[in-house]
Specification:
Order of helices and strands: EEHEEEEEHHEEEEEHHEEHEEHEEHE
Number of strands: 19
Length: about 350
């Protein structure tokens, strides 16, 4: 039987550390718990909010309804019918712990995702990516509970419909699903993924076959630590804005006006722009107000300077986006999920 807490403080349950209180809160460690929580929410007319590891979440100062935190755990190794090695993890396991477990067992393949805060489930929803690797490239399957039908669904990588910082789980239909566990397929022949410029520089002159997964992991951790705030000391949600995608024509127009603009060509005559460059070029790197600011070492990171609420973050982020749009005519979209408000960004 689940334990429902009322007026539950949520400050410590997200990496942003925002001041927040839930009308009601519960944790679920079994399918029965999930079913009971959903039934209670229906009976009491509560909106049901899912909270994972809290790394990509902005909570408003008061969240009406029931905040439900699934806590499905466990990490194990399996072999599928094709002989591929799978690492299966509960959705509430920290993604970084899964990376560490694979390396301890001599399995390379996830090391580029080291030090990303948050849970396995959240990483799948967001299609977390870093230093040349996306979750989509390693996920074999995941199991999810459908809170409307009560069914357990097995979803393949194709079913997850991954995109840049998105997945099926962000769609109207996909939001019904609660991820329970996921399996990551380890490459049969490991090769270092060091195409990311800053990472590749760490191994310049080295033959790929001489590089070990543990070395790539260590380099990734060093690079992240040099650019990003320590979650134990400074609250943030990681990269706050998505890199905007524009037409190739729009990108060329912008480059004509701003020759140093960082762009990445995409399929379909589109280009991805570096949101961090846009924010910095708008003069906002290091800009801060009383409770929220832009991290001085990385313009994509918004930080909690102490005592911030979700409302503070929302207002501050809107101001950043408005300044960038006025300067470049480009719209920035936030990465994190806003919980406790129906306002559009």
């Amino acid at each position: 039987m689940i334990r429902i807490q009322t007026e539950k403080r949520l400050d410590t349950l997200t990496t942003f550390g925002l001041r927040s209180t839930a009308e009601a809160f519960a944790q679920a460690s079994s399918i029965e718990d999930l079913q009971e929580a959903a039934a209670v929410a229906r009976e009491r007319g509560w909106k049901l909010h899912l909270l994972g590891g809290g790394s990509n979440t902005v909570l408003m100062s008061r969240v009406p309804g029931l905040v439900l935190q699934p806590v499905f755990r466990g990490i194990r190794r399996e072999t599928d019918a094709s002989g591929s090695v799978l690492v299966v993890a509960g959705a509430a396991e920290a993604l970084d712990d899964v990376v560490g477990a694979t390396l301890q067992h001599g399995l390379g393949g996830l090391e580029n995702l080291a030090a990303i805060p948050g849970s396995v489930g959240g990483a799948i929803v967001q299609n977390a990516s870093a230093y040349g690797l996306e979750i989509a490239e390693r996920l074999a399957w995941c199991r999810a509970w459908d809170r409307e039908t009560g069914e357990i669904r097995l979803l393949t990588t194709e079913d997850c419909d991954f995109g840049y910082r998105t997945s099926y789980f962000k769609s109207e239909e996909g939001r019904r699903l609660v991820i329970i566990e996921a399996a990551f397929r380890m490459p049969a022949e490991w090769k270092p993924e060091i195409s990311y410029k800053g990472l590749g520089a760490r191994f310049e002159g080295r033959a790929p076959e001489s590089i070990r997964p543990e070395e790539v992991e260590a380099a990734v951790r060093e690079i992240r630590a040099s650019k990003l705030p320590d979650p134990a000391e400074t609250g943030s949600a990681g990269s706050f804005f998505k890199n905007p995608v524009v037409t190739r024509i729009k990108a060329r127009e912008l480059i004509t006006l701003h020759p140093k603009l960082v762009t990445y060509p995409l399929a379909g005559s589109r280009s991805k722009l570096a949101a961090g460059w846009l924010i910095e070029a708008a003069g906002l790197k290091g800009y801060a107000e009383e409770t929220v600011g832009v991290w001085p070492a990385h313009a994509l990171i918004l930080v909690n300077r102490g005592g911030a609420t979700g409302e503070d973050v929302l207002r501050f982020a809107r101001g950043i986006a408005e300044r960038v749009e006025r300067r470049f005519g480009v719209t920035l979209e936030p990465e994190p999920v806003f919980v406790g408000t129906d306002e559009a960004f």
